[in-house]
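Hi team,

As requested, here is the filled-out complex form for the guanosine-5'-diphosphate run. I kept the field names the same as last time so the parser does not choke. Let me know if anything looks off before we queue the next batch.

— J.
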Amino acid sequence: MERTLVLIKPDGVKKHLIGETIKRFEMRGLKIVALQMTWPTKEQMDSHYPKDNDWITGLGKNTIRSYEEFESPTTLIEDYGTEDAYEIGKSVREWLINFMTSGPIVKMVIEGLHSIKAVRKIIGQTIPAFAEPGTIRGDFSIDSPDYANLKKRAVQNLIHASGNKQEAEHEIQLWFSPEELHSYKTIQDFFL
Ligand code: GDP
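And here is what came back:
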């Protein structure tokens, strides 16, 4: 049994996808144990996204890869003044924080067997243009990193979900107090 954190990002809220998102988790038999709408501050988002070298460099490497894959009309030097993955990652992290604080989000904690992996599969892969139909990102969004980078903004992909156990633990305690996490039995629990 695992718990994972999901955020419906500002684009998901503005596209009226709160109900649809919750429905997809519930129809899978996953249990919502905490739920709230909030307008996050820059400080909250800064604490939410990892600050370690590996994570920021990874984000920068993804951006560099999309410049190569999509044969961008501009160069990294023209757009960022650097080709260093860490420095580029820092810019993308900043765009992400700006995007996440641009409107209200819906935060929730989801519990269930292997819920971290199960939720990631339901939302689909990071890049909406390549997300499989049937996933939330694959059904309701079409953004791509080359276009987002050109506009100097984060890829808009509707949902955030914890990537692993460590992230889930950090994110759940950041967004909810222990009293806000509810333990109760659903119909599903009687069949497990
Ligand atoms: P996730 O766990 O699927 O959300 O993906 P990541 O942890 O790799 O990235 C965090 C968020 O940063 C993504 O959900 C996107 O909103 C954004 N993002 C990721 N890669 C890129 C990129 O190459 N360019 C831009 N502009 N945004 C990106």
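Two things worth flagging: The two ends are 11 Å apart (CA to CA). Strands lie at 2-8, 31-38, 105-112, 159-161.

Thanks,
J.
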